[in-house]
From TrEMBL:
GO terms for cellular component: cilium. This is CFA47 protein. Residues 82-226 form the CFAP47-like immunoglobulin-like domain. It comes from Crotophaga sulcirostris (Groove-billed ani). It comes from the Eukaryota. Pfam families: Ig_CFAP47.
């Protein structure tokens, strides 16, 4: 849209509404341009208007008399659509403290739009290339017999830095399988998640997947660590009434 003739007082503020209503899961780009001119129509004097630097010339409009007629501000905007939550109940990964558990988590990415700059590929489903970085993998798409390759980025996001510090070193995740359904335009990702808690806890996280062509999907995951097994049972035999009894045992520190 275009707004014209808005008066702004010195040190005033101007709110510019921006509406984003995507119809496909891809990134949209636009630029908000603000052109400011003096209310009285006069120009800003500038002695060396003919020698304006290139970067400055793109941000001003110069009048015939050499003064600066208007000033431009340009704000690029990237609109990245986020899919509505598909799971109201999170996937639960439960493990006893001081144990280790592996779980497969399957997520469905709906409304994936092939990227026009995608790389040609040769098959419609594949196992993950383990030589690639942990958080960046490729997804193979098939459309009318033509195959293309797209990249997806994924990570676990936590509600706070405190939860991240608790879970970050206890959770491991990697993509093990992916598949593209050409009829439904649904991408299926299967992750292997390892949870090895060291103490009882209950924390939530979100598996976030972003397509490099645009679009974000989020899937909630609940990590629950239950009480650990008892290390040992210590029996103390009474020496008699009103007499103290003692027993000794060793504790070994797991860290320095």
């Amino acid at each position: 849209f275009f707004l014209k003739g808005i008066q702004l007082a010195p040190k005033g503020k101007l709110d510019i509404p921006v509406l984003f209503k995507p119809d496909t899961m891809k990134m949209y780009e636009t630029v908000v341009v603000i052109h400011v001119m003096r209310e009285n129509g006069e120009n800003w004097p500038y002695e060396d208007s003919a020698e304006l630097k290139k970067d400055l010339r793109s941000r001003v409009t110069v009048a015939e008399n050499g003064g600066i007629q208007g000033i431009l501000w340009m704000y690029p905007i990237h609109g990245i659509p986020e899919a509505p939550p598909q799971k109201l109940v999170p996937d639960v990964i439960r493990c006893q403290a001081r144990q280790r558990v592996e779980r497969r988590v399957e997520v469905l990415l709906t409304g994936v739009i092939p990227d026009a700059n995608a790389i040609p590929a040769t098959r419609n489903s594949a196992m993950v290339d383990t030589n690639k970085p942990v958080n960046i993998q490729e997804i193979v798409q098939v459309s009318d017999g033509f195959s293309t390759t797209m990249e997806f980025l994924y990570e676990l996001q936590y509600r706070s830095n405190e939860i991240k510090s608790q879970l970050g070193a206890l959770v491991g995740m990697h993509l093990i399988e992916r598949e593209w359904d050409t009829e439904s335009r649904i991408v299926t990702l299967i992750f292997n998640i390892v949870f090895a808690p060291n103490k009882p806890m209950r924390n939530e996280a979100a598996l976030v997947v972003q397509c490099t062509a645009g679009g974000i999907w989020k899937f909630p995951i609940l990590f629950i660590a239950t009480e650990p097994e008892v290390d040992d049972v210590i029996n103390i035999e009474a020496a008699g009434l009103n007499k103290e009894s003692t027993v000794g045992f060793k504790l070994t520190s797991q860290t320095r």
